Amino acid sequence: MAAPQPAMMLPRALKHESIVLNTKPTASIQCTFAQGSASQKGRSGLVVFLNGLMADKSTWLPVMAGIIRGNQDGGYPSLLAYDRFGQGLTDDRDPQDQGREPGYGHDVLDVAQDLHQIITQISEDKMKTTPEQVPLIFVANSIGCVIARLYAASYPGSVAALLLLDSMMANSNFDWWPDPDSSDFNAEELPADVDIEILREQRAKFAAIFAPDVVNKEGLDRRNVAELLPHSDRPQLCGPGNRRPLITVVEHDPDWFASESLKVFPNTRLRFAKKLMSQSMGTPVSLTRKYSNPMWHRYNQGLLKISDPDLATGPIVAKNCGHFVQRDDPSLVVKELMLLLAKLQL
């Protein structure tokens, strides 16, 4: 695991605020926003940072600060990070959850609709324009990448670029390991330091934390994610002007991730993700190297195909980074985002 980021002074341009959605007026969402300044090209876009389940908007603050400090002379786009209902500093629950099955009140499509409402209100209230006039750039981690893809598919023509950081494998159901009860299971194919008992233990740990039906603090229902996005390489997305969006795919360092996964995460069933950013799964390095890392890499290769080859970059290996790339190396995220902004002339 990378060393914790030191405390830093944030630029004054970053404002911590709350926003009440017009569509859900009984609850508020906590956000951090920086009003952009027009670039030398006279254009300004909106960069939206999309959290995973286990890392809230605070992990994006060093990236947002880096963009502002690196563009003092040439202007920078507006920047927005927010905590979804029930996440991070947003204490309010999603009003939609009321009366629904506990723990499964809303899904990723509902989150994408909320995001559209947030973008609409930010565009109109803060940027004094319409959302149709604002080029969107999504910077996303983990399940945030799923939300970014679903948003871009639901609102074609709106997303100009995506920076996807170690995307959740939406179609995997997190069943990464061989099933010892399968008729075609061959124990001889396991790594030398892994026996069936260890394999069963790992399968149980991952199912207890990551299976789509496991309840999370947000009440975000993940059970339909694999159905919504069964492929990493499609559907292709449509950006502004009937062109494909720019896309950059970044993946974790396979050796670093294997090392992180080895560290023990005790009482797995009783502590859903509560300390996962600082503790891990006790997964043998050989299992991660043989199964999950290659599977994840193939998934990331597929993501490049949701745009055109000349608009896609990656997969870029984030050296010495685990799953939370923005936490482990915010400077890398700043660098890749700046490259996308330059291509968009923002």
Verbal overview:
It is a single chain. This protein is an alpha/beta fold. Helix content is 31%, strand content 16%. The protein is built from nine helices and ten strands. It has helices at residues 61-70, 108-126, 143-154, 196-210, 225-228, 254-262, 285-303, 325-328, 330-343, and strands spanning 15-20, 28-34, 46-50, 78-82, 106-107, 136-142, 159-167, 220-221, 246-252, 312-318. Strand 3 (46-50), helix 1 and strand 4 (78-82) form a beta-alpha-beta unit. The model is unreliable at 1-6 and 264-279 (pLDDT under 50).
Strand content: 15-25%
Assembly state: single chain
Query: Rg to the nearest angstrom?
Result: 20 Å
Query: What's the helical proportion of residues?
Result: 25-40%
What is the string of SSEs from the N terminus onward? EEEHEEHEHEHEHEHHEHH
Write the layout of secondary structure elements.
Layout (H helix, E strand, L loop, with lengths): L14 E6 L7 E7 L11 E5 L10 H10 L7 E5 L23 E2 H19 L9 E7 H12 L4 E9 L28 H15 L9 E2 L3 H4 L17 E7 L1 H9 L22 H19 L8 E7 L6 H4 L1 H14 L3
Parallel strand pairs: 3-4, 3-6, 5-8, 6-7, 7-9, 9-10
Antiparallel strand pairs: 1-2, 2-4
Helix pairs in contact: 1-9, 2-3, 6-7
